[in-house]
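WARN  no MSA supplied for this record, continuing single-sequence
INFO  ligand: D-xylitol-5-phosphate
INFO  echoing inputs
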Amino acid sequence: MKIKISPSILSADLGCLANEIRKVEEGGADYLHIDVIDGVFAPNISFGPPLIKSIRKYSALVFDVHLMIVDPERYLDEFVEAGSDIITVHIEALKDPSRIISRIRGAGAKPSISLKPATSLSTVKEFLDEIDMLLVMTVDPGFSGQSFKRDILPKIREARRMIDQLNREIDLQVDGGINKESAPLVVEAGANVLVAASAIFGAPDVEKAIREMRESCSP
Ligand code: DX5
Ligand code: ZN
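INFO  complex generated
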């Protein structure tokens, strides 16, 4: 299975963001992970649709937008219009998951669901067949630079098993503390999309960081 790498701009130098994005794009990234945090669903405040709209013209990467906000449905159209390709919403923030999933798809983006480390996979099971990606958080949402929670590995394995029981291609993304040490562990457990902020944007050589992460998880 091809591993996709999605650098998170939460650790980028926002003063020269277009340049930072160009570096990961030229360095072999597959997606660009954009963490939207509202200070309510998770601590920290980051970016919104205007930022996505302004960087859209500088990059052809798949925009992988991770919404850590309450009531994501309220701003859904703005996020799609701004240029999001994949939209991840948190199961903990949803009243009617099927409705928002079909609204995301209807608006022309790929729907994805995420769950916090403490949330059980049973909460997302019935919606798996409706989504294109499942994001299993490997740290509590909010900040980059946290340590990978190794005890999430069995959950990743179980998520992969649940996905493989369905006859559809569904990506399994992991997010939080992913670096060249944890990447092979999560890939072995079944993840195929790796988000990384500090391990890529915090590295002196972004291209080398992406290459080494890819190499670390190839058998
Ligand atoms: C955390 C965000 C992550 C974060 C990852 O809430 O969802 O995407 O940027 O940062 P690292 O890779 O540094 O753990
Ligand atoms: Zn994220």
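The chain has one domain: 4-216.
INFO  checksum written, moving to next record
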